[in-house]
Amino acid sequence: MLRSLAMPMRTPGDRGFDRTCEDRPSEEALQERLLRLRSEQGGSASADVAVALGLLQLLQGQESVASTFASALLAPEDDSYFGAPRRRATRWNMLGAVLANRGRPEDAVCAYRWALYWQPHYPRALINLAMAELKRGGFLEAAAAQAAAIASSPSWACGELWAQLEKEALAQTSIDDLAEAVQAHHIARVRELLAPHSDNLDTSSMPATSPAEVLKEMKLVE
């Protein structure tokens, strides 16, 4: 350990340093490797391969990124690795973010709801759901999702959520006591007032439709 710490640091002029940098694959080469791996594995290609490919396509701004993330949701899953439900929730949330950035808030809302089906009270998915609801004009629905995110998060992480929720509560005129409850940080009362606008938080009926059917409706898979 001490011997390794005493060794001189390599600089860009050193042969070993230059060789390491030269051996690092480009984005194009990495994408080619991932595509080849997915092709070789066929129907047994893991979700991780599709996620890695999707992230690379996202960085490159490729239009096919949504379809790639969709394929990750249909890929085989290792149930023993970090918990399959949580991993599925993460992938649905990632797909929702891609769809939202592509100007598809309706489909994004659907994806976030699937994320919440696999991991109820998932704060990041709830926050993203609120943003998607705002984009399609569902202000009270967005407030309900934000309130759920606050209820699911530690108090120290809720400052910005409370501030955004207060802004929306003051802007609306449909619920008289909402602004007062938000300003008092009375989360139970806030959620009670927003209950009629919380349908998207109920995912109990989701299993009636398979993920494959949902993705086909979104025109992300054939």
Automatic annotation (TrEMBL):
Alphabetically ordered keywords of this record: Receptor, Repeat, TPR repeat
Biological process annotations from GO: protein import into peroxisome matrix, docking
Region called Disordered, residue ranges: 1-23
Lineage start: Eukaryota, Sar, Alveolata, Dinophyceae, Suessiales
InterPro entries assigned to the protein according to its UniProt record, in alphabetical order: PEX5/PEX5L, TPR-like_helical_dom_sf
Protein name: Peroxisomal targeting signal 1 receptor
Gene Ontology molecular functions: peroxisome matrix targeting signal-1 binding
PANTHER family: MICROBODY (PEROXISOME) BIOGENESIS PROTEIN PEROXIN 20 (EUROFUNG), PEROXISOMAL TARGETING SIGNAL 1 RECEPTOR PEX5
